[in-house]
Amino acid sequence: MAIPIMIDTDPGIDDAAAISIALTHPVLDLKMITTVHGNVNIHKTTSNALQLKAFFNSDVPIHQGVATPLINQPVDAEHVHGETGMAGFEFPQADYDLLTSDKAVEAMKETLLNSDESITLVPIGPLTNIALLLRTYPEVSRQIKEIVLMGGSAGRGNVTPAAEFNIYCDPEAADIVFNSHIPITMVGLDVARGASLTYEAINKLQEKNQTSHMLYHMFNHYRGDQFGDGIAVYDAYTILYLLYPEKFSVADANVKIELTGTYTKGETVVNFDEETTNAKVVLSVDKSQFITMFFEALSYAK
Ligand code: RIB
Ligand code: CA
What we know:
This protein has one domain (3-298): Inosine-uridine Nucleoside N-ribohydrolase, Chain A (Alpha-Beta Complex), CATH 3.90.245. The protein is built from twelve helices and 13 strands. It has helices spanning 13-24, 42-55, 78-81, 104-114, 128-136, 165-169, 171-178, 189-194, 199-205, 210-219, 234-243, 287-298; strands spanning 3-9, 28-35, 62-64, 99-101, 119-123, 144-150, 184-187, 197-198, 226-227, 230-231, 248-257, 268-271, 279-285. The strands form two sheets. It has a ten-stranded mixed beta sheet with strand order 4-3-2-1-5-6-7-13-11-12, sandwiched between helices. Strands 8-10-9 form a three-stranded antiparallel beta sheet. Helix 1 packs antiparallel against helix 10 (210-219), helix 1 (13-24) runs parallel beside helix 11 (234-243) and helix 9 crosses helix 10. The longest helix is centred in the first third of the chain and has 14 residues, at 42-55. The two termini are 22 Å apart. It binds alpha-D-ribofuranose and calcium ion. Alpha-D-ribofuranose (RIB) binds at residues 10, 12, 14-15, 38-39, 77, 124-125, 150, 158, 164-166, 234-235. Keywords: Glycosidase, Hydrolase. Residues 5-291 form the Inosine/uridine-preferring nucleoside hydrolase domain. InterPro entries: Inosine/uridine_hydrolase_dom, IUNH, Ribo_hydro-like. Its EC number is 3.2.2.-.
């Protein structure tokens, strides 16, 4: 039985890897893609999502979401993902006839309330759309099976020593989500730090198929966190967790979002010793299996 999911995303090179798997893998039933500000501005994240939809000739609806965080001014990560947000591969110009709406929050609400099964939300960008959804339409909570999100860290951040990018962009939105009482699985920076996508594996992508060729060229332009032997394709770990949960180690924790610290705003303060928990925190993946899982997950793509 396929897992019904909705992806909220700020493509983003690592988002593109996650979306490539989610659009083509038979175990995932992707109901919609919603876009959010983040790695690049909302116009570029939406354009990138449309280009991926066209690349895969997908009929999955795309809805544009919000352009700015709840309170903060927008930031971006063009220095990581390039000026377009998906540097390294030339897609045909985005076809805006493929954009279903610019009302992501309303679209999520309608799909959730009209679904005959609960749906897993998979945010892989800042949490602004998700926070607005939960605050504007709290009745949707009963239709959300769980929120499996890329964000945060049980250790150091990647934008500041304390904060990870998705949470840093909109800490107030993250605070709303982590206090929603909806089951949350937090796939933070920690997982990738233990098992990067190695340069050897990236080179093997070059001519496997059209999708791996596209990702190969983008990964070679990715300027995100690099570890000795490879790069951190953070968002892809979130999708792989959905496909191979047994290969990941997880711990229950109480996660609070720092909202006022001068140097720590956006930190996920992860307490494994508190009795009251609000999230499962993914700590690591079986390093010996990660690359195999990544290639297997991509094997359904064109
Ligand atoms: O910190 C990594 C996260 O920030 C990833 O989702 C990446 O795409 C950026 O959004
Ligand atoms: Ca992302």
